[in-house]
Amino acid sequence: MILEIIRNVSTYTLLSTILAIFAAVFYQYWWRRPNGFPPGPRGIPILGVIPFLDNFPEKLLKKWSLEKYGAVMSARLGTSDVVVLNTSESVVEVFTNQGSLTSGRPAENIIRQATGDKGVILKDYSMKFKALKKWVIQSLSEHGFGRSGMEERITEEAVCFTEYLKCKVGKPV
Q1: Contact (CB, 8 A) for 47 and 75
Q2: Is the pLDDT of residue 166 over 70?
Q3: Distances in Å between the alpha carbon of 76 and those of 15, 33, 45, 55, 113?
Q4: What family does this belong to (predicted)?
Q5: Rounded-to-integer distance, Cα 10 and Cα 15, Å
Q6: 3-state secondary structure 93-161
Q7: Cβ neighbours of residue 147 under 8 Å, at least 6 residues apart?
Q8: Which residue has the higher pLDDT, 153 or 4?
Q9: Which residues, in sequence order, are CB contacts of 146 under 8 Å at separation 6+?
């Protein structure tokens, strides 16, 4: 059915349709901001605002902040959206009163593939992360983490490991 329709449509019409779909998808991806994102320049597709930055990018970001976008603005660096905080008041507000907004980690595909989406350190801040963190802290405290004796054991192990490495200088470990 679909192949029959494609055979009957001219090459020009088919290319125009594909180009229109590509343009619509690209427009949605490039120009739409995530919900609740502050205003800011989008820049050039794929490069973002990087071509406009010179040796002192903070000066240009400050200028944009003062003249057009305000104390909290966003900018696209390459294909990543970043939030720029330009005043000490905005930094205090975001990091103290809205800490959950800044507690996450970037969700990079390469990190997910390397870790199998497991572990705690590179997890994004979510309910799953909170539960995992609580479990890790509880497990560590059951095994002495946070007690005075643990510090002595860690120091002792570090000394032993350092001595072991000194013995292996020039040899594969």
Answers
A1: no
A2: yes
A3: 30, 10, 9, 18, 24
A4: Belongs to the cytochrome P450 family.
A5: 9
A6: HHHHHCHHHCCCCCCCHHHHHHHCCCCCCCCCCCHHHHHHHHHHHHHHHHCCCCCHHHHHHHHHHHHHH
A7: none
A8: 153
A9: 140
